[in-house]
Amino acid sequence: MRAQPRPTISVIGTGYLGATHAVCMAELGFEVLGVDIDANRIRQLSAGDTPFYEPGLAALLRSNLEAGRLSFTCSIAAAVDHADVHFVCVGTPQRPDSQAADLRHVDAVISGLIAAGLGPRSLVVGKSTVPVGTTARLAARIAAAAPGAELAWNPEFLREGFAVEDTLHPDRLVFGVTSGGRAEAVLRALYSRMIDASTPVIVTDYATAELVKVAANAFLATKISFINAMSEVCDATGGDVVELADALAHDDRIGPLFLRAGIGYGGGCLPKDVRAFQARARELGVGPALSFLGEVDAVNMRARARAVRLAHELLGGDPMNRAVAVLGAAFKPNSDDIRDSPALDVATALRRDGAHVAVYDPAAAANARDRHPNLHIADSVIGAVAGAEIVLVLTEWSEFRTLDPAALRRHVARPVVIDGRGVLDPDAWRGAGWTYRALGRPPRPATVRHHAPRHLAERPLPERPTSERPTSERHLHQGAGLHVVDKAAH
Questions:
Q1: How far is CA 412 from the centre of its chain?
Q2: Which contacts of 138-143 are long-range, i.e. CB under 8 A and separated by 24 or more positions?
Q3: 203 three-class SS
Q4: Distinct helix (H) and strand (E) counts, the chain
Q5: What number is the average pLDDT over the span 56-72?
Q6: Catalytic position from the list 24, 89, 234, 269
Q7: pLDDT (tens digit, 9 = 90+) per residue, 142-161?
Q8: Prediction pTM value
Q9: Residue 343 DSSP code
Q10: Would you state the pLDDT for residue 132?
């Protein structure tokens, strides 16, 4: 039997999700056209430059452009002419006037596809995170305007810093489809390599597919805020949240992941998804079912304020004209994403309180400088900490986790550190003469630890190839008298 031709693909929206998905589908061998209304972004991607930092993505972008499998355009009409399958990957930010998701971009894509003559054999696949009920509404629009075309919902589960790995080797695939259509078969063909590698496939209805993503994010946010709530209790009682989390993690029903107390979650997904989920529940008349997510959000925001208060305490109650170093600007490591960044929230709060704040981040410095011109953005760790009266480690980059506290001490005015992510070794820092403090951890002298807490044994962060590291990071320790502790020792 003659093999069926491989479907051609368009990916509409080339932000973080869309650019990654377009590149990875081309890497799987498909002919892919990326579409965006941002002409500058299209030129940048067409030239082989990624508009954001994601480990491994730039090399795959360039190789697939060179292979001719990947191209970019501003024309949605070209996408309709080119492709059999259209992935919708535009953003759904929080609305400025409420907690609800803003669906203007999703609706605009559907309108654009219909206006461009969406064909009767076309498949539109949503990947954007949308409130439950959205897909059914969009499917009715498509059915009325383009009979024979189908809509499926295939939510994404990408972690920034691991997005290429998560796209090419997902932990599950979810297909929200209607019975009797072609969508499931087409999706199975598109993802055949993953399915052949035994990736679980969940085929379900539209509503369940939509709920999977927001429920997953709500659950993760709840677990993070739970341990941060315990951190508040530990601060009030003298307990140690790290030892508490270690004890909890030995219960297999709880597990060790997302039990590291700190300054909370941020980014472009969890905060707005938690709020949009609550807003949609209220619209559906089941608001009380998700009312607890309001406290999850509140605990998360309080963690940032608690870090600011701790800095005030360690500065004697008055941060005015005091030198403060903040290590970290991205909301998480291996990313340059500063959306709803807890680190920058803390930094800007201290700046408003009169402190002289210097921030360093190995990937997000340019974004931080553009968004927060009132902050001093340093070019290195040494540039940030020189003369500082307190150092706050607020993004858990590997180079911050492995700093040598004895070497760093030579560059500060007062050796005081706040471990905002629970990633430093308190004994090593105290032994080097630092005052070490962290949320949920009482001040105490150094002690000998005989085993690493289980909750710290999470999946290691991927090391970035030297060729992809920002210039400031490649020269982080050069000529500064700063040494890095052997990573194998951590």
A1: 31
A2: 138/106, 138/107, 138/110, 139/178, 139/206, 141/110, 141/114, 142/110, 142/114, 142/118
A3: strand
A4: 20, 14
A5: 97
A6: 269
A7: 999 999 999 999 999 999 99
A8: 0.87
A9: H
A10: 98
